[in-house]
Amino acid sequence: MPVYNLKVNGQSHTVEVDQDTPLLWVLRDHLDMVGTKFGCGIGQCGACTIHLDGSATRSCLLQVSMVKNMEITTIEGLSEDASHPVQQAWKEVDVPQCGYCQAGQMMSAVAFIKQNKNPNKIEIRNAMSGNICRCAAYNRIEKAVEVAASKMS
Amino acid sequence: MKKNISPSFSRRSFIKTSALVGGGMLIGFNLFQACKPETVPPVDISQLNFNDFNAFIKIADNGMVTIFSPNPEIGQGVKTSMPMLIAEELDVSWNNVIVAQGALDTKNFTRQVAGGSQSLRQGWEPLRQTGATARQMLINAAANKWGVSASECKTENGVIINSNGDKLGYGEVVKEAVTLPIPEKIVLKNPKEFKIIGKDIPNVDIDKIITGKSLYGMDYKEEMMLYASVLRPPAFGKKLIDFDDTSVKAISGVKDVVKFGDKIAVLAKDTWTAMKGKKALKANWTSDSKLENTEDHDKILINLLNGQEFNTLRADGDVKKAFAEADQVIERIYESPFLPHNCMEPMNFFADVTAEKVRLVGPIQTPAGTARRVAQLLGRDPDSVSVEMTRMGGGFGRRLYGDFALEAAEISSIAKAPVKVVYSREDDMSAGIYRPAIKYKISAAIKEGEITGYHLKEASINSNMYGLIPNFFPAGAIKNYQVDVASYQSEITTGAWRAPYTNFLSFAEQSFFDELAELIEVDCIQLRLDLLQKVKGTTDEKIQYSPERLENVIKVAVDKSGWKNTKEGVYQGFSAYYCHNTHVAEVADVIVEDDMPVVKKITCVVDCGIVVNPLGAKNQIEGGIIDGVGHAMYGDFSFTDGEPQDKNFDTYRLIRINETPIVETHFIESNIAPTGLGEPTLPPAGAAVANAIKASKGIRLYKQPFIKHIKAKELLG
Ligand code: FES
Ligand code: FES
User: Fold this and answer.
1) Atom of ligand 2 nearest to the CA of B394
2) What's the confidence (pLDDT) of residue B697?
3) Which tens digits make up the pLDDT trace of B442-478?
4) What is the per-residue pLDDT across A21-80, written as a single tens digit (0 to 9) for each?
5) Residue B219 above 60 pLDDT?
6) What is the CATH classification number for the domain harbouring A21?
7) Final residue in a domain of this structure, among B391, B422, B453
8) What interface predicted TM-score (ipTM) does this complex get?
9) pLDDT band for position B45 (50/70/90)?
10) Do the Cβ atoms of A34 and B219 come within 8 Å?
């Protein structure tokens, strides 16, 4: 089985997995980073969102063989103490219900705010429309992105 | 003013204390077993079973209080709100409270149902009594120490104070408190004295969620554990003939292939390999009866509605006569599809079956029942089966059914290995226990402008409305009133789905009232108020809703929504409903964009008694409403030859953030015990939107999902 060197949250890891294994399952099953979630496996729900060299990507569709030498950031890499402005905003607004989708929501939000420091409501809605929240905590997600953007600008 | 509670049972029999090694005291208590899905919401708090509910409070000698939450979290905020009730009566500062989940393998945490909307309602008195009992114990200990009477002492934020002004912290008296008898007489606070209840308290697990900690069943792992992906019959009604796993076994990392019943599990070193292995399985299937189709169901249910074979669940007056004597009769049929739950976290469960014991871990709402079923399945002593609950990535009713835990247990037992069964989204959507497809026929008899008769008929797959639902509004308001039900037995598995039955019934009835109002030329709000007027003072004990409270939410909603007073281009629809002991009114604001309705806002007025945690409550309300709007607009699920036609989110449409209305919530101030929140705001949402769509586009909707039927109607012109 091939061996891959991955750089996740600034740290190097070596894994031995099939080349077609999605990064999602490498993170969850092999690197014990379970913050990144499985929701659909086909790029439709956003629960598995991570950053690849800073841009939001669906890790369920990303084969491990394709991420060599790239900078991978997961929810665990935002901050361990919940101090990242997006985490802070999520806390202030008390967004989660079941919470399962929220890591993906936050990773989408971080990447989006980096590109758009002062988003309006429509831009927020469009940017976040790739992430499903089955509990429908959408009003709070929208609000939290707004709060986070103001913290980050 | 304090409220005296005379114990209806000995407090000593359900509260026990122990001195902890290393200091502090532990209070263990039995409360109750929350309701099962099939049971009726209890009418009376005294009817609850107080034997099967267990939780603990630890008071450390530094005064810190740890409450071992009686309920695992499913997304309804009970892990935060239930401990708030204990802390309130214990009279400690929330900052000094830690909420923890039960430890591994504690049998004490295996015997509950993680309740739906009813948990808080049922916990309201007993949890507060538990807190108050603990407080009294500490007071008694301090009073003994001081040599004063306990009645001279009071408490404040974790400190006991006597009439001389002497103070002792809770932690300073725990040693003594443990040795004292459990007080039989306690007083509960008057709601006016509440310091924690009614405050915005953030979700106790927030930090773990936002930093991506392991919390959910999906995250659970153990050394040596194998991941299992299960191939199930591709259609309801199909059975396994045989299978070929040659190419599966060739995949490196696949450890075992296990057949059980009509299913085959592939066990592997990781989830991906197990899923790949499952895809490589070749299986042959057969069926001994005709496979089912949605089109056939539609015909069958309509035939049932038009037939004569019904169970009558409520009959007032003489409906037949009322219709015979009517000047005018209106009759409408409302139709809904099956719906999958689609919890964000797909079904999964861990099982380790060894010769000595059976260990199960995962997201489940019915641990006790599941343990029993697993014991039965494996022929084990129930005492050797333990179930540990994890946080749940949504439930909506799906995790009441332990089918996935039984699968895990069976596979582990055959493979003789610890196993975690993981559903893919496709598995989750096609091995569902769906909201059944339902149709309603509602008829009303009108004589001299009055509604003299009301006849509701339900035709549903597998089972019918239950409990007190036939007595919901407008029962009691119309003299001649009848509810009849019929069902068709299908191979397709169905069960509870957020606000069972009322999730669609409310749409049917609240749409019907609007049409009725048009027909008899009465304002649609007035029609509802007039009907409620007739229920006031009813002596019918089956009528649980309060006409006064329903009237009140309606009036406040008219006021708060700017009813009929909106900007140009904004159309409104009204709906009001009672279920899960909660009274709700909703107004939908709809605009038309590119010829399609867009729901911009829902104004919601809720009377759910005392609001324990407004921050969490609003989250539930917003979620329930958007869920209701989403499924009414988009939720569509059908079967062809027993096979679900949608299996993932590429074709199955769930509401997304850009389609979401802004929810504005208003609570009715109340001193009444809290009632359900997770479910009751969902049912009225569909009708509010449908009635607004009628106002905007002139299209009256009778079927869900709206999006499909609006398009169909427009094509027909
Ligand atoms: S799991 Fe990757 S998008 Fe759904
Ligand atoms: S919080 Fe439950 S899916 Fe988003």
Assistant:
1) 2
2) 87
3) 999 999 999 999 999 999 999 999 999 999 999 999 9
4) 999 999 999 999 999 999 999 999 999 999 999 999 999 999 999 998 899 999 999 999
5) yes
6) 3.10.20.30
7) B422
8) 0.98
9) very low
10) yes
Is B478 a member of any domain? no
Indicate the residue among B378, B395, B422 that finishes a domain. B422
Residue B68 has pLDDT above 50, yes or no: yes
Q: What is the pTM of this model?
A: 0.94
Question: Cα separation of B455 and B315, whole Å?
Answer: 9
Tell me: do B404 and B549 sit in the same domain.
Answer: no
CA distance A8 to A36: 12
**Which pLDDT score, from 0 to 100, does residue B107 have?**
43
Whose atoms come closest to the Cα of A45: which ligand?
1
- A98 and B74 in contact by Cβ < 8 A? yes
Q: What is the rounded CA–CA span in Å between residue B228 and residue B350? A: 10
Residue B398: inside a domain, yes or no? Answer: yes
Question: What are the tokens at B409?
Answer: 């247990």
Contact B271 A25 (CB under 8 A): yes
- Look up the domain containing A61 and give its range: 3-77
pLDDT at A130 over 60: yes
Residue B712, pLDDT score? 80
Long-range (24+ apart) CB contacts under 8 A made by B548-553 are B549/B578, B549/B583, B549/B607, B549/B668, B550/B473, B550/B576, B550/B578, B550/B583, B550/B585, B552/B583, B552/B607, B552/B668, B553/B583, B553/B584, B553/B585, B553/B605, B553/B606, B553/B607, B553/B668
Mutate to test the interface with B, among A97, A102, A112 (most CBs of B within 10 A): A97
Cβ of A44 under 8 Å from any chain B Cβ?
yes
Query: Residue A130: CB within 6 Å of ligand 1?
Result: no
Q: Is A66 on the interface with B (CB under 8 A)?
A: no
Q: Mind telling me how many Å the CA of A78 is from chain B's nearest CA?
A: 8
Q: Which residue has the tokens 């420091």?
A: A117
CB contact under 8 A, A100 and B394: yes
Q: Is residue B150 part of a domain?
A: yes
User: How many structural domains are present in chain B?
Assistant: 3
- A-contacting residues in B 358-417 (Cβ below 8 Å): 391-396
Task: Identify the residue among B220, B646, B657 best suited for mutation to test binding to A, counting A beta carbons within 10 A and taking the highest.
Answer: B657
> Would you state the structure tokens that stand for residue B114, as one six-digit string?
């993680």
Q: Pick the ligand that lies closest to the CA of residue A135.
A: 2
CATH number at residue B95: 3.30.365.10
Shortest CA distance from A127: residue in chain B:
B658
